[in-house]
Design brief:
heterodimer, A: ten-stranded mixed sheet, B: mainly alpha, globular, disordered N terminus
Chain lengths: 353, 540
């Protein structure tokens, strides 16, 4: 009799212990969010690099450290945030770009917040209306096809000079781009082609790209690091940024970059930050967004993330020399993007997948 | 009747059945609700949009075609292997049988990673974004189903019947066609339909190996929900998937009727030594096939986890202790192991607590409504459960999105049918007079359950719990929807690491996959020690 009871007690105790252990885990994470009075969590995409010096300055000013939590590509980042809207996995979200900005207005994802120093940011980067009240421009850049100059020189082939020439059979099987479903440069490029070829012509352009052997990868990392010839892949044309070439000089110990930008292919991109509704630390979140348009943060962006600042700061030498900017990049106004985006993505998928 | 109504354990059982029904209905209804009422009004917009798209039908075609192709390949390899294992006696026979079974209990993301290491950018040939690695992975994963199920069928063909056939003048092909085939046909059908079903709802393998280019309905549900934020579109596809799975399950029940289950075979069939040249060749072929299909991928996984550039080293294993920048993982991989073990343990506990009383409640009527309710979770694909759970308990008033409990909840839904399947057969064979005797001797209902029934089903319950634990450790399709970035489970962490092919995470993904293999092996070993050989695993 007593042995049986003992077994029962053991079983109950064991289950209780297990539940307690898990409870502990739960309590632990709650504990950290309490201790997070000295921590602000920045939700962002994979390839984001924290500007270290600026982050230290932020810590000195506020006593809070910035914890970067990367959750995939920008498309994945935003959808993940939308799925957890109201119970966010961080305080600030950075990496929503102009192509996805209006999607970020659904689900009541963001708290309205406008930094006091917003006037430092030129009008042309700012959004209007509801979006403008919630999203603060942080950086700007252009999504452009990059080409591997040395590859073309070696083959004795003149590199393509226009967006149209990417469909030229001379450049068959040479281009790799990102999917607009998952990747924000992919979406910016798609919108660029819609701007250039119009509602009636863009699908035909993509059909010709397909006929010419374009490869689509889900993410920028995938395309740039595993397929681009400069990183050891097999494609000398890759959809990247106007500011990618300086990266090769900074990190690659080269005298000059091997890549060049196909300026005719460039499309506009502006990236924004916002305060997440339900943030554990709304006050710190607002201070971080404010700080992201400060001199310290902005001047460090070019060499940490290879993007252009949105406020007027001095650009580093490598950038002045090697980063190119298109004079008239393609791009659609926000209201057209908002009205057409989901339909275009569906049409693109119908066409390409 | 009056006796049972006083039985407190039976009441618990009915509640448990209701819990299972509710646990399935809530996510499915949540998906349906979101699809029909995305904002504040009713609409069929999503149905119209998805069903009128040519891409949807292409996707359905591709999904069915890849499942059929995977099924054909698996049968083509599996049936001969099953034949050899059933008819011949040779050294290492049981090792070959075990090797063919092991991948079936491995998590799908692990199988995916293994084939990514063989047929990916760093493998023998780069077949990324094609169907070949996926077919190979499906073959590896499902070989066990065919070898086990068809093997049981073949073992059950009485040898006397075959000799009688020959004696009566039938040629060997004649015996095969007129004696063996009719006996084995239900097992062949059962195996084929189950493999088809598994490939139809395959998720982890395709997410890892598809490279974003190759997709199926199951993967599209995930892409739409978590990439495009098109929850109503994902919902429509979920409903289509639900119908397809139910159709496959009905086909399985019809076609597989009469299939012999391994547990029912008592006598060890007579096996011959391979004597002639062709017989030896057949044995060699079977051994070779199992080695290539089942053993090489797992070995490749371990080799890759120890490969650092051009040399061998334990760097990737040592790096599991800390979060590495550039891998896409925000926590140390060991934290994922802790999360997985904790969540899977709790999920297993939950599913045993629900499944055992529920199975007991339905044991008296085979094929009744209760039976069907308990098999319901099998019919709902993992992504539907994940998406549904996120929609059902991811919004006030019930918002568990930030809670640790949402992952074990999702996993227990996937595990419940496994436990039910394990404990139902011994419960059904429980001699009724034993309980009556206990009652006559004055044992109250609680004591009858605790002292008579429980000891009899304990073995099966432990085996079921073991399978459930392994399934929860590897669960991906539902977990990926509900696991938070700061609390990934091991499969979620692996898929995250594998999603960045250029990143430093590849080696870590390999090491983490090996950890998962070892964990599953440890669980199964422990179960084997406690509950004895588990002959039924992989038999359908």
């Amino acid at each position: 009799m007593s042995r049986r009871h003992l077994r029962l007690i053991c079983a109950v105790a064991l289950s209780a212990l297990l539940v307690a252990a898990c409870g502990d885990d739960d309590g632990g994470s709650e504990g950290t969010s309490e201790a997070a009075s000295e921590k602000v969590v920045l939700l962002t995409y994979d390839s984001f690099a924290l500007p270290e010096e600026a982050a230290k300055e932020f810590e000195r000013l506020t006593g809070a450290t910035i914890e970067v939590r990367a959750t995939g590509d920008s498309g994945t980042l935003l959808t993940g945030a939308l799925l957890s809207a109201g119970a966010p996995e961080g305080d600030v979200i950075f990496g929503i770009d102009n192509t996805l900005a209006t999607r970020a207005l659904s689900e009541d994802l963001l708290e309205p917040f406008t930094p006091d120093s917003i006037d430092r940011v030129p009008e042309r980067y700012r959004l209007e209306g509801d979006a403008g009240e919630r999203l603060t421009p942080i950086d700007a850049g252009e999504v452009c096809v990059n080409l591997d100059r040395s590859w073309f020189a070696e083959k004795g082939l003149a590199p393509p000079a226009t967006l149209e020439s990417l469909t030229d059979p001379a450049y068959r099987d040479l281009l790799v781009v990102e999917s607009p479903v998952t990747s924000s440069p992919g979406l910016a490029f798609l919108l660029g082609t819609i701007d250039r070829y119009g509602e009636d012509g863009w699908q035909d352009y993509w059909r010709r790209l397909t006929a010419n052997g374009v490869r689509v990868r889900p993410s920028w990392d995938d395309a740039y690091y595993s397929d681009y010839t400069v990183s050891g892949g097999d494609r000398p044309l890759v959809l990247s940024y106007a500011s990618s070439p300086p990266v090769e000089v900074v990190f690659g110990e080269l005298e000059e970059p091997s890549s060049e930008v196909l300026l005719d292919s460039c499309a506009d991109q502006v990236e924004y930050a916002g305060v997440l509704r339900g943030a554990a630390n709304p006050e710190l979140a607002r201070r971080l967004v404010e700080f992201m348009i400060s001199e310290e943060w902005q001047s460090e962006l070019p060499l940490s993330n290879f993007v252009f600042p949105v406020v007027d700061v001095e650009l580093p030498e490598e950038f002045r020399r090697w980063a190119q900017r298109a004079e008239d990049p393609a791009g659609l106004p926000p209201e057209r993007i908002d009205a057409g985006r989901e339909r275009w993505i569906e049409q693109w998928r119908d066409l390409m997948e | 009747m009056s006796r049972r109504s006083r039985d407190p354990v039976a009441a618990v059982g009915l509640v448990a059945v209701a819990v299972v029904a509710l646990a399935v209905a809530v996510p499915v209804l949540a998906v349906l609700w979101r699809t029909l009422r995305p904002e504040d009004s009713w609409t069929l917009e999503a149905f119209g949009r998805i069903l009128s798209s040519s891409r949807t039908w292409r996707l359905i075609g591709v999904t069915v075609a890849q499942a059929a192709a995977s099924c054909a390949v698996t049968m083509a390899v599996g049936v001969p292997v099953a034949w050899v294992l059933s008819r011949y006696r040779f050294p290492g026979r049981s090792a070959v049988r075990l090797a063919a079974t092991v991948p079936f209990v491995l998590p799908s993301v692990v199988i995916g990673s293994a084939f990514a290491s063989l047929l990916g950018p760093r493998g023998l040939v780069d077949l990324r974004a094609t169907w070949w690695p996926i077919l190979a992975a499906h073959l590896c994963f499902n070989l066990a189903v065919v070898v086990r199920t068809v093997g049981a069928g073949l073992d059950a063909v009485p040898a006397d019947l075959e000799s009688a056939g020959r004696l009566l003048g039938a040629t060997p092909p004649g015996v095969l066609r007129r004696v063996v085939l009719p006996t084995v046909a239900p097992a062949l059908w059962a195996a084929a339909v189950i493999v088809f079903l598994f490939c139809l709802t395959s998720f982890g393998v395709i997410v890892i190996l598809g490279g974003g280019r190759v997709s199926t309905v199951e993967v599209e549900i995930w892409t739409r929900a978590t990439r495009q934020f098109d929850l109503s579109g994902a919902g429509v596809l979920s409903m289509l998937q639900l119908l397809a799975v139910i159709a496959a399950l009905v086909a399985h029940a019809r076609l597989g009727r009469g299939a012999v289950r391994a547990t029912h075979v008592d006598a060890e069939p007579r096996r011959r030594r391979p004597t002639s040249g062709p017989q030896r060749l057949a044995v060699l072929g079977a051994v070779g096939a199992v080695a290539v299909v089942s053993v090489v991928p797992v070995l490749a996984l371990f080799e890759r986890s120890l490969r650092v550039g051009d040399r061998l080293g334990t760097d990737h294993w040592r790096n599991l202790g800390s979060a590495t920048a550039g891998t896409g993982l925000v926590v140390a991989p060991v934290r994922a192991v802790a999360t997985s073990v904790g969540a899977a343990t709790v999920a297993t506990l939950l599913s045993v607590l629900v499944a055992v009383p529920a199975a007991r409640a339905v044991r008296t009527r085979s094929g009744g409504w209760g039976d069907r309710v308990l098999l319901l979770p099998l019919g709902v694909s993992a992504t539907t459960i994940g998406l549904g759970l996120l929609l059902a308990v991811g919004r006030p008033p019930v918002d568990l999105r930030g809670s640790w409990w949402i992952v074990p909840l999702a996993q227990s839904l996937v595990a419940i049918p496994l436990v039910v399947r394990s404990v139902l057969p011994p419960l059904r064979t429980l001699p009724g007079n034993m309980l009556d005797s206990a009652a006559t001797l004055g044992a109250p209902p609680g004591a009858r359950w605790w002292r008579v029934e429980l000891p009899l089903v304990r073995r099966a319950a432990v085996a079921g719990a073991g399978l459930a634990l392994v399934a929860c450790l590897g669960e991906f399709g539902a977990t990926v929807f509900v696991a938070r970035a700061e609390r990934p489970t091991v499969p979620v962490a692996i898929s995250r690491l594998m999603s960045r092919p250029g990143g430093a995470g590849f080696g870590q993904a390999m090491a983490l996959s090996c950890v998962l293999v070892l964990l599953c092996a440890a669980v199964l070993f422990a179960v084997d020690r406690i509950a004895g050989g588990d002959e039924a695993a992989g038999t359908f």
